[in-house]
Structures are given as C-alpha cells and as structure tokens.
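Entry 12.
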Amino acid sequence: MKVLLLGFLGLILGLIAGGALGVGIGSICVEVFQVSKFEGGAGMMVFFTFMPVGAILGGITGAYLLGRLAARKPAKS
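Predicted 3D structure (tokens):
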C-alpha cells in the first residue's frame, strides 16, 4: 500500500514539476528559434507541445523514482 501511495504522489509531483519544466524549456526554445508571436503562435507551441511532453515524462519519472524508494527494503543493522 505504501508503494502505491508514494508512486501516486510521485506521479502528481512529477506532473507538476515536468509541466513547469516543459514551459520553461519551451519559452527558451521560442526565444532561441524566434517563433512568431502572431496570434499566440508561440504560446500555443509551448502549452500544446512542450508542457504536455514535460508533464508526461515528469509523471512517469516521479512515479518510478518514488515507487522504487518506497519498495526498498530497509538496511539490516
């Protein structure tokens, strides 16, 4: 049960962190590649491309890492 709950917590935290990281990377890419800001083109690129990809990767990574952390057996003293 602990593994499942920590895995779910990792998923939620990873989604939030990955989405934020995706927005940051997307904003940098928009400036570097000089994407047109006409009618919100740059914003749509960031929020429909970079943010979902970052959220998916962050969610999977967060769930995996916290699940592995919860599944570890305690060290014997």
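Annotation: Helices lie at 2-32, 41-71. Residues 2-70 form one domain.
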